[in-house]
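Reproducibility note. Readers wishing to regenerate the assembly model reported in the main text can use the exact inputs given here. Chain order matters: entities are listed in the order in which they were concatenated for prediction.
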Amino acid sequence: MSDASYLSLEKLTLAYGDSVAVANLDLNIRKGELIALLGPSGCGKTTTMRAIAGLLAVKSGHVRLDGADITRVPANKRAVGLMFQSYALFPHLSVYENVAFGLKLKGMRGPELETKVESGLKSVGLSTFANRKPAELSGGQQQRVALARSMVMEPKVLLLDEPLSNLDARLRLEMRTELQRVQKETGVTMIFVTHDQAEALALADRIVVMKSGKIEQIGSPEDIYNRPTSSFVADFVGFENIFPLENGKMKTSAGLIDLSGKPPSAAGLAWRPRMVTLGTGPFQGTVRGTSFAGDSREYLLDSSFGPIKAEVEASQPAHALGDALAFDLPAEKAAPLSRFV
Amino acid sequence: MTLRSLFIPITLLLVIAFLIGPFLIIVAASFSAGETLAFPPQGFSLRWIAKVFTVESFRASFGMSLFLAIGGTAAALILGIPASYALSRYKLPGAEIVRTIVSAPIIVPGIIVGLALLRYIVVPFQVGITLALFLAHTALVLPYAVRVVSASLDNLRSDIEEAAVLLGSSRLGAFFRVVMPNIRGGIMSAFILGFVTSFNQVPVSLFLSGPGVRTLPVDMIAYMEIVFDPSVAALSSLLAFLSIGIVFIAERFLGFSRYV
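Running the prediction on these inputs yields the following structure tokens for the assembly.
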């Protein structure tokens, strides 16, 4: 086992009956990494997570963890933890008993068990809630119990299903900090599934963007945010002006268009609204919509080759609906896309 | 007060009188001092209530009814809990058909169930009367068991079982550790509902009675055909209060009405 493949998925294919949800997926995860599986619903991210947990049978391929092939190892023998989106606490058991559940199954008893459960509860700040039932806790507290329940088992990998999606903005930040702290303190390898790019960018060491059961791109948050390699990823992280390239020219509904500057050799180019130059340039557009966003102002322009979204600082003079504006899509600012789908 | 505003309260009172009236008459009649079943009761005495406990056949048939109600309901739950689990947790082909078939004894009149059991099971296979009654009561209670247990399973998230498995439990272990404790209320409610249904069951039992083997309600009918004294009223009152007591306790401790 090399350090780069503590957990590895090899040619993993997963299916529900005849419909393939994940096809030929390869992924290597380092020990102690915090990985985000990011993608829209139906992209296979949750399916992949369930297969790592052992809750879904693998159709073909392998799952290896810490040097062992666990493809056929049942879920209860994998040392993989999962924090469910709904938390899945046992409603009939107290907070203490919830956290003790797995330890008791391991045969732990007496003072050892007590110490372990108490330190688990303490680490999530819920020591004084030990005797409450889950229904008596807030959503954020329930989630911390779920985290403690998984972590006291000292899993090799902790999976998290949309860990921040059920929380309000304040709790989100709190939980995000909590997860990063737990990860830092224990060094556990964490994989979380999300459809929210902001969540993935804020939390992960590496992001795996998935689409239709395949990996679109793997990279650091900076890579994903600044250097998307496909039109899908570009669109997903907020590049709203995306065009394919042909012979160095932009291919649009109005034919091939020359760009200012020398375009890179790529399959397509993508610009965030902020990257569009407004006021000068070779292209003409008409303002079809504007919206004020505090620091900036967004414009939707109609051009001869389709709608363009531009964003400028709010301090610049505002344009009204119907105004004709010159604009530019500078090639040197664009993110070059190697795949256009 | 207009006539219109009195309409609903009066209707309500009439309905309540209609529902409770016969029961009150029976209770009153059981304290009669007279020799025949009559209302209004003649005098007051506890002799008919005392007599109930001395009639030999009542004691035997009460034992039989108790055995059927407890045994039949327990058997129905042993079959019904796994059935409910399968119906609520897996997308089985034909699940709706199974659900309908399992519920059928509620819809089909008891007389028909009794006759069918007698004609096609008891007679051709030479099944003993006690066994036949046991099977019949199990079948009659099964729909209630499935219905009530399903309702509480549907209210229970299935991901807690997966959580238990990931914490080291086997699938079967997860069922006993996290599913059963959380549907206990539903199971108890199903038991009580099944018990009362079985205990008060007449039409099916009527077909499946034999020499010396009778359920209590059937025995009461037989008794009344010969003796027309208030002891049947006294017994009815005792049984009614028993049922009311059970349901009251169940509602108090289990929130029975949530499941029915």
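We highlight two features of this model. The mean pLDDT of chain A is 91. The first helix of chain A runs from residue 45 to 53.
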